[in-house]
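Please, structure for the following, as tokens.
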Amino acid sequence: MSDKQQTTQDSGFKAFLKKKDIEISWKRYFIDAMGAMASGLFASLLIGTILSTLGTQLNLQVLIDMGNYAKGVAGPAMAVSIAYALKAPNLVLFSMLAVGSAANTLGGAGGPLAVLVIAILATEFGKLISKETKVDILVTPLVTIGIGVILSVLLAPAIGKAASSVGGLIMWATELHPFAMGIFVSVIVGIALTLPISSAAICAALSLTGLAGGAAVAGCCAQMVGFAFMSYKENKVSGLISQGIGTSMLQMGNIVKNPKIWIPPILTSAITGPMATCIFKMQMNGEPISSGMGTCGLVGQIGVYTGWINDIASGAKAGITATDWIGLLLICFVLPAVLTWAFGQLLRRIGWIKEGDLSLNV
């Protein structure tokens, strides 16, 4: 084959991918898809856990049932969310229900990561075949589900095991070296929360719970509550709410313009992380996704509380103590607000943060 023919074929293939809206990029797969997966998890497993926990505490069976139904569709919810982010045609999108169920079930504890990988592959294969035949209504679901389920059987157990092993290693290391790992997990997960990637999806994929989960919660709170209070001068109440219980990702544009504004919440996370692991022994034993949510909708705190309830039910914990509540309040709210504000004031005085650097259009 001549170079000219090869170039023509390459151009034709690229045009075909463009026609099918298949974009092989970091942004499409690791930002858009992972962010969508976190939304799917939130709308199923996480909200289901909250409902069932409320139902148990209030002795309302209807809430428990609602929660169980929501938790039961976590795999399909993640897969459909990913396919939606990848702009899948309807038949591909709806076919992902079966793919998500297979990948999440066969992936075990590391199911979310298995769903992410397999849903991306199955969606893109489905998009390739979509509307290419006269019997699209049969061919597209058959190809999408067939490839997705086959990949789930072949890959999901290994992906799930690998994710669980990495998560288990992080949790083991945190138990063994709570100070150093408290800093590491808190800082890294906190940074991931503010970046345009999903810290919640990362924690869910790694099944991050226990002391490591507590450190992750601390890091996320340092970013969210920290930015909310540090930027109160510029953004007032609207900024306090949108960042404090919404997302610190709103500051990403300002971080690009002046990376120094990121120093205060990162320093705070390096302090509150080891305090969570070493002093208050704060564990997050709820759903792993909660470890990466921080104060977004108070999901991180609900996760810690859910873990307390689960531990009491299993006999691992005798009861909820005053120290537990004090630690939760200090690590998640008080210290992030006070420390980040103080560090921010210092940086304002030395000129590293200037007027308007933290301003949002909220």
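The chain is about 75% helix and 0% strand. The two ends are 58 Å apart (CA to CA).
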